[in-house]
Amino acid sequence: MVGSIKTMKHHSNGWSAQNCNGLEEKLDELRSLLGKADGDPLRIVGVGAGAWGSVFAALLQDSYGRFREKVQIRIWRRPGRAVDRATAEHLFEVINSREDVLRRLIRRCAYLKYVEARLGDRTLFADEILKDGFCLNMIDAPLCPLKVVTNLQEAVWDADIVVNGVPSTETREVFEEISQYWKERITAPIIISLAKGIEAALEPVPHIITPTQMINRATGVQMQNILYLGGPNIASEIYNKEYANARICGADKWRKPLAKFLRQPHFIVWDNSDLVTHEVMGGLKNVYAIGAGMVAALTNESATSKSVYFAHCTSEMIFITHLLAEEPEKLAGPLLADTYVTLLKGRNAWYGQMLAKGEISLDMGDSISGKGMIQGVSAVGAFYELLSQSSLSVLHPDEKKPVAPVELCPILKTLYKILIIREQSSQAILQALRDETLNDPRERIEIAQSHAFYRPSLLGQPLATLHCQ
């Protein structure tokens, strides 16, 4: 029954005494900054158990979980999500291919339930398997066992640090509920948001609403206590110790200590004051990743076609960043890096591929079993709605008349017609690329660089508060 077994080193093993001492020192520093007394553990809670949220909690557990008297790490996910038979069968194969995982489950007397699920004699649930280190959206990459809580109030009411791992489309709803449990708190928690996505609002002026802003409005926690962490990485690869980097963005008071606390030899965390702009860029790349997946599928992975698409989509992203950022050139490297990794292996590119191949349909929604929320879909709608406002008009290079910015973004327009109003098929993305009237992407960049496009109102804040100090 076990079959072929791979021997793999467990992530939490192999720490030297020097490493442990260094980790404990970092933990003690953060505890001191938060005013934690001896015997009162630092309480870190992940809210949401998608791939990145689960990996983030597992990284912290692997690093700091041994210091039980000083830190408590938990993760909340909704109860009741059943694991289907096909997933249970695949999970059983994964377990039996990993000697370390197999031994761990046998030692914890947890193996039998996976046998029963494989035979169809038992139904597993997502919160149940997460306790054993299996994220439903990332079955092929087992994590360390996690402390899982299914009651949101129990999870967050006394948390010192809350990590937002729910999709941007669910962030407001979840944190509005959380706010009910924080009414009598004396000290505000620190919140680190991992969510990539945006909403568009048109009143009083067209502007973007990001997950950190949703959290701020839902809970009343000040923006100086809310940070964003993101970067060009794939969750499962980070947990498997592939070298990666990320940025934690927000107020100086917390971003630097948290960057130090989160940094590991294989996961380098830098810090930056520009919170909202980095957060928006994290959502923007998901838009164009879906189109990249479509082009790859429709052209049988043609390198030439994908490079043509990349030229046009990056020029549109550069154009949009000039509307959103006062110094857009500072974002070029991080944005392109994040876009590149998403195009290579991200779920949004995968979604575009599956749509183009006909293996999934739009009627299935944007929450896909085994993948989680495809946040690029809602981001397409939000960016299109925002950039189609006439109050943001720019001068068209050929027609020499004011047009909404979206008129200079043919890829974004096409994705909107495919994904949101559904008046065109995936083939339309190729037609857009092959349109003989399409401008040279270089011209779009030149337009952005030669005109005063910057609109601070798009980020929903006065100019003076765009950077958290």
From TrEMBL:
**Single GO molecular-function term?**
glycerol-3-phosphate dehydrogenase (NAD+) activity
Keywords (A to Z) from UniProt: Cytoplasm, NAD, Oxidoreductase
Give the enzyme's EC designation.
1.1.1.8
Give the reactions, separated by semicolons, that this protein catalyses: sn-glycerol 3-phosphate + NAD(+) = dihydroxyacetone phosphate + NADH + H(+)
Subcellular localization, as worded in the UniProt entry? Cytoplasm, Cytosol
Q: Gene3D superfamilies of this UniProt entry?
A: N-(1-d-carboxylethyl)-l-norvaline Dehydrogenase, domain 2 (1.10.1040.10), NAD(P)-binding Rossmann-like Domain (3.40.50.720)
List residues of the Glycerol-3-phosphate dehydrogenase NAD-dependent N-terminal domain: 146-248
* Enzyme class name: oxidoreductase
One term under GO cellular component: cytosol
Q: Name one process (GO BP) from the record.
A: carbohydrate metabolic process
Show the InterPro entries listed in the entry: 6-PGluconate_DH-like_C_sf, 6PGD_dom2, G3P_DH_NAD-dep, G3P_DH_NAD-dep_C, G3P_DH_NAD-dep_N, NAD(P)-bd_dom_sf
Give start and end of each Glycerol-3-phosphate dehydrogenase NAD-dependent C-terminal domain.
274-427
Reading the lineage from the top rank, the first entry is Eukaryota
Annotated Pfam families: NAD_Gly3P_dh_C (PF07479), NAD_Gly3P_dh_N (PF01210)
The similarity comment for this entry is: Belongs to the NAD-dependent glycerol-3-phosphate dehydrogenase family.
Q: Which PANTHER family match?
A: GLYCEROL-3-PHOSPHATE DEHYDROGENASE, GLYCEROL-3-PHOSPHATE DEHYDROGENASE [NAD(+)] GPDHC1, CYTOSOLIC
Official protein name in the record: Glycerol-3-phosphate dehydrogenase [NAD(+)]
**What organism does the record attribute this protein to?**
Salix koriyanagi
